[in-house]
UniProtKB/TrEMBL annotation:
It comes from Haloferula sargassicola. Pathway: Cofactor biosynthesis; molybdopterin biosynthesis. Its EC number is 4.6.1.17. Residues 14-149 form the Molybdopterin cofactor biosynthesis C (MoaC) domain. This is cyclic pyranopterin monophosphate synthase. It is an enzyme of class 4 (lyase). Catalyzes the conversion of (8S)-3',8-cyclo-7,8-dihydroguanosine 5'-triphosphate to cyclic pyranopterin monophosphate (cPMP). Keywords: Lyase, Molybdenum cofactor biosynthesis. PANTHER family: MOLYBDENUM COFACTOR BIOSYNTHESIS PROTEIN 1, MOLYBDOPTERIN COFACTOR SYNTHESIS PROTEIN A. Gene3D superfamilies: Molybdopterin cofactor biosynthesis C (MoaC) domain. The gene is moaC. It catalyses: (8S)-3',8-cyclo-7,8-dihydroguanosine 5'-triphosphate = cyclic pyranopterin phosphate + diphosphate.
Length: 162
């Protein structure tokens, strides 16, 4: 097995997906954001409230925008028409769990879009709360599951609430 974005001449390039079938594709990624007590105290039961506004709602919008820009940020990603990007944020014990599910119908998967959405949402949460906690950490940015295409990973991508 070889790296998909390296050709026989050991040069980088986009994967040729022209011969692939168009199929429904989905991927879910996750990022954890750990905050201190000062930030956790701002949680009102549904969102973190900051001087910059509602943190989770802003992070959700930023994550969706980020997922839509993936091919502009990651050099070898194909530009994809995304059918859906949904981000869900839960908060327990000083940790925000961000899950991003991206969907498309196409010739290549949406793993990078889901990972980018989760990452940008996590970075936005960090930006909005750093005044209360400059030591916020973002951990475990990972692909949770993907479906469609040649191989699935982690089971069926779940549907997140709107």
């Amino acid at each position: 097995m070889s790296l998909s974005h390296i050709n026989d001449s050991n040069q980088p390039g986009m994967v040729d997906v022209s011969a692939k079938n168009i199929t429904p594709r989905a991927a879910t990624a996750e990022a954890l954001v750990h905050v201190n007590e000062a930030v956790a105290a701002q949680f009102d039961g549904t969102d973190l409230v900051s001087k910059k506004g509602p943190v989770f709602q802003t992070a959700i919008l930023a994550g969706i925008m980020g997922a839509k820009q993936t091919s502009n940020l990651i050099p070898l990603c194909h530009p994809l028409p995304l059918d859906s990007v949904k981000i869900d944020i839960t908060f327990t014990d000083h940790t925000a769990t961000i899950r991003c599910t991206a969907r498309t119908t196409g010739k290549t998967g949406v793993e990078m879009e889901a990972l980018t959405g989760a990452s940008i949402a996590a970075l936005t949460l960090h930006d909005m709360c750093k005044a209360l906690d400059p030591a916020i950490t973002i951990t475990q940015v990972r692909l949770v599951e993907k479906t469609g295409g040649k191989s699935d990973f982690g089971g069926k991508a779940e549907t997140l609430k709107s």
